[in-house]
Amino acid sequence: MTISRRISLTLLVAVVPCWASPASAFDGADVASQGVKAAGRLSLFETPSQAFRQGMDGYRSGNFKTSVEAFEYAAANGNPLARWKLGRMYASGDGVPQDDDKAYRYFSQIVANYDEEDGDRRDLSVVSNAFVAVGVYSLNGLPKTGVKADPERALEMFQYAALNFGNADAQYNLARLYLDGADGALPKDPRQAVRWLALAADKGHLQAQALLGHMLFNGFDGMPPQRAKGLMWLTMARDAALGGKDPKDAWIVDLYGKAASSASDSDRQVASLYLDEHHKRN
């Protein structure tokens, strides 16, 4: 089985002990600097939330200059939604020049300012996804800006989001680390990988379903194949991949095709029963 070592930032979807929040990950100097720059626009916005709403209005209308100014004000004044939106925009070059360094810094601000003691958090999905984004950047590094690859920090980010938020993207990325190993930070452990893939797959994570199905169909780490169960997951992943029509998901269709071509009639029949049971439960 060949699995790419690099995890894409586009992959933005267990009862265990709580981990301490790694809030020391980001130097607050950037926040202060942005606050000074945003102060000049104070008269334009009554509150950070109002600035964020105005930024979204500008974004939806295609007025990116206005929206970025509003988002920057809201972000500099602690609005995690604005920080997430700016991070996403810079990560993908959506209305702004693509800039992974800026994206990383905005995502890091969210991680650094997360307070798990705050009981009234309506932005947990944003916080959860920010942990995953910082994990991906930490795993791959940013050579042009001096951010070195740090597998241990990537592992910390993925574990935190997987354990505390049940984030499917984090669970999938954590499984990938267990499959490949993490440069000394984590030994290879296919059985742990399957555990995390199963959790993400149950949440509908397309790539997790495909990898889980592939491993179960073929067997792994001395475990015998579960061909019908594997074919069930591969079928679900294939159907979703075809529905989405994303060229990046061609590998999923390919995995399904290879399994289906070697599956017996019995494998297909039992897989169909498993699939019906899964749909009924969900």
From TrEMBL:
SUPFAM superfamilies the record matches: HCP-like
GO biological process: ERAD pathway
Transmembrane segments: none
Keyword terms of this UniProt record: Signal
Signal sequence interval, chain numbering: 1-25
A UniProt-annotated Pfam family: Sel1
Name the UniProt record assigns to this protein: Sel1 repeat family protein
